[in-house]
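Lab intake sheet, docking and co-folding queue.

SAMPLE TYPE: protein with bound small molecule
LIGAND NAME: adenosine-5'-diphosphate
LIGAND FORMAT: SMILES
REQUESTED OUTPUT: full 3D complex as structure tokens
PRIORITY: normal
SUBMITTED BY: R.K., bench team

The fields below were copied directly from the construct record.
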Amino acid sequence: MSLPILTTDASLLTLTNVARVYHTRRGLLGGSVDVRAVDGISFTVMPGQTLGIVGESGCGKSTTGRLALGLEQPTEGHVTFEGAPMPPAGTAAWRDLRRRMQLVFQDTLGAMDRRLSIAEQVAEPLDIHGIGDKSERADRVAALLRDVGLRPDQAIRYPHELSGGQRQRAVLARALATDPALLVCDEPVSALDVSIQAQVVNMLTDLQAARGIAMVFISHDLKVVRQVSHRVAVMYLGRIVEEGDPDELFADPIHPYTRALVSAIPVPGPRLLPRIVLTGDPPNPADRPAGCAFHPRCPVAVPACRVETPALRKLDDRRSVACHLASTNSRIAV
Ligand SMILES: Nc1ncnc2c1ncn2[C@@H]1O[C@H](COP(=O)(O)OP(=O)(O)O)[C@@H](O)[C@H]1O
Ligand SMILES: [Mg+2]
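RESULT FIELD (auto-filled):
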């Protein structure tokens, strides 16, 4: 069990020892299997700050994002938003809260109604939440589209008539329409060309700073996460294995898994870290290894790692690591 992180009154979003278990069937005749998609995580997001979440596919990032928005109920632990428990999805209290927290994900066409023009899509949440009168809404839609860099002639187009990057801008305009305090962005630029990614990410961080929006920014792309985040959490098989300041964490990763991820980032010139290639089976949450879930792939595992699950411990004010071998004085030689 990871220790609960102390929250201050000022925190916007807090997850405390949150787990999410899915019951799935294995094959036609197989019995049901419990998948601990998220396995006891705690974090706090402060207003206006971005928490980046990185990790391989299947490690529980999207589930964490849905838990943070109340779209998914925790099996264990609890989620608070603006100091109050997250109301269950679908209730009037939760619907009311939805204008304060929005989700942006990778699939822009799936996020939009193909029958509505871009301007109509952006106006929709204003209608739903009864914000402004007709002319105020029109002004607000125009301002939002301008803010995300879309032209008035693009506002009258339909989703399939825009490029992926333009559609993601429109999705963002709609997410921003209700003045949210929190945006959960789940791989928001992963489907876009690299050159377009940078533009959309820059626009997103500019708007976030100007409006003081907090973000949970989920991506498997460490470079993007480093660029946008105030804090970074690295996930492995449903748990946070390392958390800290992005520059420090990427310059001096401590957990062997983080070291492997960072060593794989393509960089020009000589590497700071030798390339660490992970061996062993890719992680499978339906068949989680005992002890530290990373131990079968860990180049420095000791016998204790097979038995005891390491808690996420603070090494100093700026870094937490879940590894038996991590300590402030002796960084792990991998
Ligand atoms: N609705 C669901 N039902 C059953 N299993 C799920 C469900 N959603 C996610 N999972 C499983 O939980 C694990 C974590 O998934 P996810 O949160 O989507 O990871 P990520 O976003 O990091 O790729 C995966 O093994 C996935 O198959
Ligand atoms: Mg995902």
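REVIEWER NOTE: The domain at 13-321 is CATH 3.40.50.300 (Rossmann fold).
SIGN-OFF: pending second check by T.M.
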